[in-house]
Design brief:
The protein is of the alpha/beta class. It contains twelve helices and 14 strands. It is globular. The two termini are 33 Å apart. Bound molecules: NADP nicotinamide-adenine-dinucleotide phosphate. The site of NADP nicotinamide-adenine-dinucleotide phosphate has 26 residues, from α1 and β4.
Length: 285
C-alpha cells in the first residue's frame, strides 16, 4: 500500500515518513516544495494519480504565524485538510489528520477528553478546530489525532533541544505557569499505527502519560543530560507565559485524556519522563 505524507519536512511528518520507510512501506514523503497543500487542484491531481491507500496530513501553520497571518492560517489549517480529505475519499484512500490541545482554552483545571467541546483562544486553535470539522465533514471516515507538546529528532524547538542546550552549558527559558501533556514523536507514530490497524476512525487524543510545565520538562531534561541539580539551576531560567511576549495566547492548562484509544483496548502510552529518557539517550549516540 502506498502512503502519501504531506508536511514531511516537519517534526511529525518526518518521523512518520522515516518509520514507514524503515518498515518497507512505499511512502511518498512530500515537503512543502513538493506539494503546497493549499493548492486544492494540485492535491486532487496528485492523490488521483498516485492512488494511495492512506493520505496523512502533517502540514500546519505554526501558532504565532497564524496570529500574524489569519488568512494563511485558514488556508493551511482549514481548507487544506478539507481538500485532502475530499481527495482521499474520491480515491478510496483512508485519511489521517493531526490536531492539537490548543483547540481548548485551558481555563479550567481539568483533563480534556475527546468528548469535550473545543473552545479555542487563538487563531491557531480556532483554525485547527475548524480544520478537524472540515476534514470530518468532507470525509466522515477520517481519523483526526489531537496531540500535544511534541518532541523528537529533527526539530529546533524548546522541547526537542533543551537537553542539548544545557549539556553544552547554554541556558534555556522555561515557562512555569502553563501545563500540558507531552508527546514523544516516536510514541505518537507507533500509536497512530495501532489505531489505524484496529480500524479507528473519528477523533483520538494521543499523548504520553503525565502532565508538566516547560520548567518541569527542562529540569527533567537536564537530569537526563547528566547535570546535577546545582549545575542545572543556573541554566533553567524560569519565566511566565506573559513574560514571553508571544503574538498568540497559549492555553494555561490542557492535559489530554485518551478515552477513544482506551475504548479500542489500547493501554496508555508510557510516562513522558520514560519517553524523554529514551530520546535523550538516543541523542547521545
Ligand atoms: N509540534 C507540536 O508540539 C504539536 C503539538 C500539537 C499538535 N501538533 C500537530 O501535529 C501536526 C504536525 O506538526 P509538526 O510539529 O510536525 O509541525 P512542523 O514541524 O512545524 O511541520 C509542519 C510542516 O508543514 C509544512 N507546511 C506549512 N505550510 C505548508 C503548505 N502550504 N504546504 C505544504 N506544507 C506546508 C512546513 O513546511 P515549512 O517548514 O517549509 O514551512 C513544515 O515542514 C500539526 O497538525 C500540528 O497541529 C503538533
Amino acid at each position: 500500500m502506498k502512503i502519501i505524507i504531506t508536511g514531511a519536512g516537519g517534526l511529525v511528518g518526518g518521523a512518520l515518513s522515516r518509520r514507514l520507510a524503515d518498515a518497507g512501506v512505499d511512502v511518498l514523503a512530500l515537503r512543502r516544495a513538493d506539494l503546497d497543500v493549499t493548492d486544492a487542484g494540485a492535491v486532487e491531481r496528485l492523490v488521483g494519480a498516485e492512488r494511495p491507500g492512506l493520505v496523512v496530513n502533517c502540514a500546519v501553520l505554526g501558532v504565532d504565524e497564524c496570529e500574524r497571518d489569519p488568512a494563511a492560517a485558514h488556508a493551511v489549517n482549514v481548507e487544506a485538510p478539507r481538500a485532502l480529505a475530499r481527495s482521499a475519499a474520491r480515491a478510496g484512500a483512508a485519511f489521517l489528520h493531526f490536531s492539537t490541545n490548543y483547540v481548548f482554552d485551558g481555563e479550567g483545571r481539568k483533563l480534556y477528553t475527546e468528548e469535550d467541546e473545543p473552545r479555542p483562544a487563538s487563531v491557531y486553535g480556532r483554525t485547527k478546530a475548524e480544520g478537524e470539522r472540515a476534514a470530518l465533514a468532507a470525509y466522515p471516515r477520517s481519523l483526526v489525532v489531537r496531540t500535544s507538546w511534541v518532541f523528537g529528532a529533527g526539530k529546533r524547538s524548546f522541547l526537542s533541544t533543551a537537553h542539548r542546550e544545557m549539556r553544552a552549558g547554554r541556558s534555556v527559558r522555561a515557562i512555569r505557569d502553563t501545563w500540558a501533556s507531552v508527546t514523544y514523536v516516536e510514541d505518537l507514530s507507533a500509536r497512530v499505527g495501532e489505531i489505524l490497524e484496529r480500524g479507528g476512525r473519528g477523533l483520538f487524543h494521543v499523548v504520553n502519560e503525565g502532565v508538566c510545565t516547560y520548567e518541569e520538562f527542562a529540569r527533567e531534561a537536564a537530569r537526563l543530560a547528566g547535570l546535577g541539580e546545582r549545575e542545572a539551576a543556573p541554566l533553567v531560567e524560569t519565566v511566565t507565559e506573559a513574560e514571553m511576549l508571544r503574538p498568540a495566547a497559549r492555553p494555561r492548562y490542557t492535559p489530554l485524556g485518551c478515552l477513544a484509544a482506551e475504548r479500542l483496548g489500547l493501554a496508555p502510552l508510557r510516562d513522558w519522563r520514560a519517553a524523554l529518557a529514551e530520546y535523550v539517550g538516543n541523542d547521545e549516540r
